[in-house]
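Expect sequence, tokenised fold; for instance:
***
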Amino acid sequence: MTGEEIVYNQDLPENQPHQEKRSRLRRFISEYKTRSESVISSDSELRTGHIDYVYLALAVIILAFGLVMVYSSSSVYASTYHGSSTYYLKRQLLYIFAGLALTVGFVIFANPWIWRLFTPVMYVGTLGLLALVLVVGKTLGGAKRWIEIGFFTLQPSEVAKTAVVLMLALFMSVYASKLTRDRPIKDRLLYGVVGPGAILSLIIGLVVLEKHLSGIIIIGVLGVFMMLLGGTDWRWIVGAVIVGAALVVVVLAFSDYAQARVETWIHIDQADPLGEAWQSLQGLYSVSRGGLFGVGLGNSTQKFGYVSQPQNDFIFSVIAEELGFFGAAVVIILFGLLVFRGFKIAKNAPDDFTKLVAYGLSAKIAIQVILNIGVVTNLIPNTGISLPFFSSGGTSVIMQIFEVGIVLSISRFKLVKKEPETQLEEVPEC
């Protein structure tokens, strides 16, 4: 036996395998960090600064405004069904604190490469949750979308919206060089359509099984936005939109619940005002009753059982009734400023991945606000879309705060050109 063979065959100490595993994990993380930071050009450097305080201030103002409206819209319903007018306010505060607890660590400590490491873990975990909800999920209104965890109800489709943005941003940034016009068409097809399409299809396929039409629409629109922004040829995007529309038609064909919603929307003047058209008609009446300046904060009459659970998807109708056109306009302007500031952070992001993430998460807010207001004003069918930061909810509020934290984390980092090194002139000896 050689000396090397003797060492190899000796019994390892009991904790040696665990030490080797930890060592391999440390090497993997170190190599991943090095590869992630290699996207920065040699003439630039990554600098850490403070978070974007304007973006933070806008998010705080919207959250505070949302809390006021959650209490105002839910007080009657909460007193009637839960014995306390502050029931939903307390729950919303709890969700906000949970979101802040989840977020603060990332804002303070997360570097861009950490988000790259976190993304595939979150994506795979989300697929697991979406599959799990089909087995052990709670069924409401014929749809199985929720997992009960003690006093908290988790909705995996809300997590899926964030996971899709992060995973598509990672994929599109890694293979960005494959999407330039000088590349063969097979590369642009594989990395611009097939790859991101597979990432999107896995999530959407599971959400389809949950019978969650609004989730399918939001995730699909986000996917198209991320692909277009990431470099996919717009002509293939058109094809993807056609496929997405066909998918929605298929869902409608097999879902009596979705068909009824669309039918009510198209023929709302003929629908039963005391039945399937009740919620939409009461929402419209609530909006029209507010006029220019509203009936006053807390003075809504529609929240007295006319708009069902007014603190949820139809909270915008209570805002319009109590604060009028101007109050509703303020809400829209605040969201517009938040999205605009998010796009500005994205523009200054240090690399393609964080740029796509910031654009995608900001676009997600815009998409949900537009669709929610569209539902309340009956411009689109009633599909159960929450108003970000306003609608009462657990998973949605926590994930929205978490997304704000991601954007704030990205805002801390800037890519700056290195200053050319100046060489000292040699002083001749006397």
